[in-house]
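User: C-alpha cells for N-carbamoyl-L-amino acid hydrolase, please.
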Amino acid sequence: MWRDLAPIGRNTTTNGYRRYAWTAADTDCRAWFQAQTEARGLTYELDRNGNQWAWLGDPTAGDAVVTGSHLDSVPDGGAFDGPLGVVSSFAALDELRARGAHPTKPLAIVNFGDEEGARFGLACVGSRLTAGQLDKDRAHALRDADGVTLPQAMERAGYDPEAIGPDPERLARIGAFVELHIEQGRALDDTTDGKDTPVGVASAIWPHGRWRFDFHGEANHAGTTRLEDRRDPMLTYANTVLAARKKARTAGALATFGKVGVEPNGVNAIAGLVRGWLDSRAPDEETLAAVVGEIERAAVERGQRDGVDVRVTRESFTPVVEFAHDLRDQLSGLLGGVPVLPTGAGHDAGILSASVPTAMLFVRNPTGVSHSPAETAGEDDCLAGVAALAQVLEGLACH
Ligand SMILES: [Zn+2]
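Assistant: Done. Predicted C-alpha cells:
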C-alpha cells in the first residue's frame, strides 16, 4: 500500500507531496482508496461532502467503530501525515481478519476530504461540512489562489457541489472514531525513562485559529520616495512578526506568520498592501485570545507610527478539544498504559469529537518534523501502530 501511494502527487524536485483537494493527485489518491476497499470486498461509499468510506458489516446498523484519516497534503508535505492513518487502518483490518476476529459491530475506514485546507485556506472541510461546522454558503465562497471556487473545483473533479452540507444521519451511525496519525512533535521520541514508546494516545487538541492581517500603506517608488514620506506596510508587518514571536513565547503559546502576500510585489516598489496570515495555538482559549489580542494591539500601534492602517479578520477558529475520556482511558488500557499527550495540530478527529466519541493514536516521529518531506517514521514503529490499532479495533468492535 505504501509503495502504491508513494509516487502520487510527489514533486520530484522537493520530494514533498502536493496532494491538494480536488486536483489530479487527489483523484489518484481517491481511486487508490476505492481500489483498496473493493479488493477487500468492503462496501464502498462516497458521501455528499466527498469523504470516502469502506464498510465491513452493515453501514446502517449503528454503533459502528470507525477509523481512518486523510490522504491530502500541505504544500510539499511529508508522506506520513494522513496516509499513515489510512494505510494503517486497512492493514489493521487485514490483521483482524487474519486473526479470525468476529466484529459484533460494523467497522469502517474513512478518508476525509480536504483535511489540510492547502488549496482553499480552511482545514478539515470534509469533516466540518459533515459535522455541520461549516455551512454551504461559506464553503461555496471559498476560493483558491487562482480564483477557482470550491464548487468549481468540485465540479471539475466530477462531484456535485450543491449536495454538500451537514450529514447527521451518517454521524449517527458512528459509536466511536479512532484516528491514527504520525506524531507532529517529538514527545514520544523524547521519553527519557528508558521505555520504548512507539505509540501514544492523544489527550487533547489545543485551541487554534487563523487570522488575516491586512496592512494598508501606500505603494510608491523605492528610489524617489523619501523615507519620511513613506507609508510602508512591510515595516509594520515585520514588526508584527517579531511581536507575535515574543507574545507567544511569554504566554507559552505558539504564533506563526507562515504565509504572506505583497502588492504590488516589485523589487523597486514600496508595498501598498501586505497581507500576513497568523496561525496561533495555545493550551487554553483564554491564553489564545490574549496572545492574538496582544499581537493585534502591537500591529495597530506600530501601524500608527508607520502611517499604515491595520485590519484583522479571523478566518477560522477551532475551540479546545478534549478527547472523550472514557474512550481515551479504554484505549490506554487496551494498549497497556501507553503515554497520553496533547497536540497543537488540528485533525478531523477533533472536528468529529463534538458529535461522536473520538480518540487518536500517535506514532513516533523521530525528527519531530511535520508538514515537510523530512517527516518520518520507522517501519517498526509503523507496524507497532498497526498492531495497536488492530488491538483497539478488536477491543471496541469484537466484544
Ligand atoms: Zn494530518
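User: Anything notable?

Assistant: The longest helix spans residues 285-306.
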